[in-house]
Amino acid sequence: MRRFGPTVFAEMSALAQRTGAVNLGQGFPDSDGPASLLDDAVAAVRSGANQYPPGLGVPELREAVSRHQDRWYGMRPDPGTEVLVTAGASEATAAALLGLCEVGDEVVVLEPAYDAYPALIALAGAVQRSVPLLPTADGFALDRAALAAAFSDRTRLVLLNTPHNPTGTVLSEDELALVARLAVEHDAVVVTDEVYEHLVFDGHRHRPVATLPGMAERTLTVSSAGKTFSVTGWKVGWVTGPAPLVAAVRAVKQFLTYVNGAPFQPAVARALDLPDAFFADQAADLQRRRDLLSEGLRSAGFGVRTPAGTYFVIADPTPLGFEDGTDLCRRLPELAGVVGVPVSAFCEPGGPAAEATAALVRFTFCKSDTVLLQACDRLQGLR
Ligand code: PMP
Ligand code: GLN
């Protein structure tokens, strides 16, 4: 693990604290989730849900996850064998990689990649095969030839992420179909990180890859309460999929954390049953804030690609004369009193994704209007 230093999020949040800059780096909301959710967790603490819960997670939550998958996607995992509660999506992904990969197995990953993925692949002793998502005029697109070329007879797993951090891309049906075809051809398991499943905009729909023909039997679908309910500090996540694959994840999870978050689990279970309006209103409000930040960035002189989902917008500072996103992010607190995250931190140094995104900066818009407007105001000074 020597090559993995402190995460870019820790580094940039510390920089924001040290300098008093507005922190649009690390993606966490500055307001809490729904009041009913918070009240339910407090009530669970008060009513004594404070000891180890069952290893698979509390039954109410496993049943609620199963209902959620049915309500949104028409899948009905068995709460007894096909749903596992984990310490956030992070642990689900970690345990899946550790449980399913042998040393030397290959893992196909979209790049830029969430920073945990390369570290987890390394922990599993597996080999990363990156497929670039390349900037286009208005977004990012999967390099299809590179995707096909990334598969080999050593491919064990495809680690997908849609909606995608950091680019905000929602993979198209066509892109998912190609991943599915290649996974079937190479008999690979797909682990898909869908933590932003409910944060999609402009009428885009999130489609879990597990719903594609032939995929249910080879896909582990991962999500968490952090993003959907604005409680990133609770670390309650889950994975669903066929019983043998979930069992492999559980075999690892039981020795990583054993169990987690007893009083949060019944609260999250109830929140998953919130009416459609909650999910729609939240996405609409976030879309409004996406537009607020995007407009501010554009008027400050950045090029902006409008994300279809997530908490993040990618800004291109080259029109302002900045070519190196990492260097700009280090200087941005001093230049403008704002913190962002360089997209190259999500890329293997020297690779095609790093090269294509070298100048780009990720800013989060999961903040109050006041904070976003303050950041936009400060950034006007960059010209
Ligand atoms: N996956 C992605 C793509 C993320 O952006 C994050 C960060 N929120 C996580 C996983 C971590 O999720 P959790 O906090 O539920 O572990
Ligand atoms: N997922 C969040 C982001 O991308 C941060 C999570 C973390 O700090 N590891 O900003």
Give a nutshell description of this structure:
Pfam families: Aminotran_1_2. The protein is of the alpha/beta class and 383 residues long. It has helices spanning 8-19, 35-46, 59-73, 88-100, 116-123, 144-150, 173-185, 225-228, 243-256, 264-272, 276-300, 325-336, 352-356, 369-379, and strands at residues 22-23, 83-86, 106-111, 127-135, 140-142, 155-161, 189-193, 219-224, 237-240, 303-305, 312-316, 338-339, 341-342, 361-364.
Describe this structure in words.
- The protein has 383 residues and is α/β, with parallel strands linked by helices.
- Helices cover 42% and strands 16% of the residues.
- The protein folds into 2 domains: 8-30 and 277-382, Aspartate Aminotransferase, domain 1, CATH 3.90.1150.10; 35-272, Aspartate Aminotransferase, domain 2, CATH 3.40.640.10.
- It contains 14 helices and 14 strands.
- The radius of gyration is 20 Å and the shape is globular.
- It binds 4'-deoxy-4'-aminopyridoxal-5'-phosphate and glutamine (GLN).
- Glutamine is lined by residues 7, 9, 26-27, 165.
- Keywords: Aminotransferase, Pyridoxal phosphate, Transferase.
